Amino acid sequence: MAHRETELDRITTLLGQCLGRIDEQAFRLQRGDDEPDWAGDVLEQEAATLQELVSTLVAAHASTDRADLNRVVDHAVRDSVAEAKAPVAVRQRLAPALPEVACSPGQLGFAVQRALLLAFGRADAGSDVVVTTRREGESVLFELECSGHRRDRHLRERAATLCEFVAGLQGNCQIDGDEQGHLLLAIELPAATVADER
């Protein structure tokens, strides 16, 4: 089991890095920083890498339908801090004894990594990020609050794929930003129940 978790963590990290490069290239293309033909080649290569990583995740964890949110968040935060373009202060408020989430570790890792990329990708040096996990009724929540965040006019568009992905897991994703550089993001997913066990 420990080997499978280590492999999942490695694949999730690679997946997050790939998504970050795709997001950055798309943003540069929107601003007109790159030639469309060259940027298209880069995006095509990254999309192929992304497809390979997703296939690997699905194959490796097809039988796993429960995930530990705190473990996934802790790993994803460490990776995101290491990859951040600017020094960022992160505080974690992880609720103890959370029920597992009713999705695979790979799916949960993808959602958390993507949420962190949205925050860290536009964070300025000295930004303060608070990551919280908690239970609310029959749901488990991942919440991210960031101050010192550069204003991003395309934030909702960039978050659309994450919101769609979370909806596919029977969850809900909300994201909001303001003119003062505050970013709020919340992912709500159903908690696994005894009936979910195989």
Report on the structure:
- The two termini are 17 Å apart.
- Helix 4 links the parallel strand 1 (88-94) and strand 2 (123-136).
- The longest helix is centred in the first third of the chain and has 30 residues, at 2-31.
- Helix 1 (2-31) runs antiparallel to helix 2.
- By secondary structure, the protein is an alpha+beta fold.
- 51% of the residues lie in helices and 23% in strands.
- A 5-stranded mixed sheet has the order 1-2-3-5-4, with helices on one face.
- The protein has helices spanning 2-31, 36-60, 69-83, 105-120, 155-168, and strands at residues 88-94, 123-136, 139-149, 172-177, 183-190.
- The radius of gyration is 17 Å and the shape is globular.
Fold topology:
Layout: H1 2-31, H2 36-60, H3 69-83, E1 88-94, H4 105-120, E2 123-136, E3 139-149, H5 155-168, E4 172-177, E5 183-190
Helix pairs in contact: 1-2, 1-3, 1-4, 3-4, 4-5
Descriptors:
alpha+beta, 198 residues, 5 strands, 23% strand, five-stranded mixed sheet, 5 helices
